[in-house]
Amino acid sequence: MNNHLILIIEDDVEIIRILQAYFERDGYRTVTATDPHVGLMHHQRLKPDLVVLDVKMPKMDGFETLAALRSTDDTPVIMVTALAEDLDKLQALRLGADDYVVKPFNPLEVVARARAILRRTMGDRNSAVLRLGPLTIDTQAMTVHAGTDMLGLTRTEYRLLEHMARTPNRVFERSELIDACLPEGEAMNRTVDSHMSNLRRKLGAAGLPDLIAGVRGVGYRLDAPHG
Question: If I label 156, which of 61, 116, 189, 194 is the partner at 20 to 30 A Cα–Cα?
Answer without folding.
Answer: 116
